[in-house]
Design a protein that fits this description.
Length: 187
């Protein structure tokens, strides 16, 4: 994989991901995406030549709905997803409220919310269009992801207090233990 279209083609061939996307599409959420570590792990597993997928803690679903920003709604949506597919550890977050939780600027869209994720390689989301084709949102592009280079996203690079969060995350995640070709930038 060298380009964005290669990544899209690869993900479109992933039956598990496509099933998850179709499941989430049933909710008809505004501006929704499956994103973050679940997508990143699929790409890194492929780039490392792994035959079995790496376990991920959850399948992150984000959306924007300023009319219903209570956390309880997210939990209800997780329950609906669990009824549709109980074998998936769903995590649903309305990005309308997440800036309060994470002490970040408010997001105007889900793609904008992705720019507030700590690393460029995690700021990636996918969803389906009406023709059941995969759409990619990667506000920082896909080169870092495809070249296994972990860098802080803009906000976590330019803010000293947020950069320390990035560094702490890198130590906790220890991604290079699972994916030894990953290069972490700690500047």
């Amino acid at each position: 994989m060298k380009h964005e279209q290669d990544l899209i083609d690869f993900l479109q061939q992933d039956a598990e991901l496509m099933n998850h996307l179709r499941t989430v599409a049933n909710l008809q959420l505004p501006d929704w995406w499956i994103c973050a570590g679940y997508i990143r792990a699929k790409i890194w597993d492929h780039l490392h030549g792994y035959n079995a997928p790496t376990h991920t803690d959850d399948v992150d679903v984000i959306y924007i709905d300023p009319t219903q920003s209570e956390e309880s709604i997210e939990k209800e949506l997780e329950q609906v997803l669990n009824q549709l597919d109980p074998n998936v550890p769903w995590s649903v977050k309305n990005q309308t409220r997440m800036h309060h939780v994470n002490h970040l600027p408010p997001s105007t869209s889900s793609t904008d919310a992705l720019t507030h994720f700590p690393e460029t390689v995690t700021a990636i989301g996918v969803r389906l269009n009406l023709d059941d084709e995969l759409i990619l949102s990667a506000p920082y592009g896909v080169q870092d992801l495809l070249t296994l280079q972990v860098r802080p996203a803009t906000y976590f690079e330019t803010s000293t207090s947020k950069h320390s969060i990035y560094l702490k995350r890198m130590a906790q995640k220890n991604w290079s233990a699972q994916w030894p070709n990953v290069k972490l930038y700690t500047y």
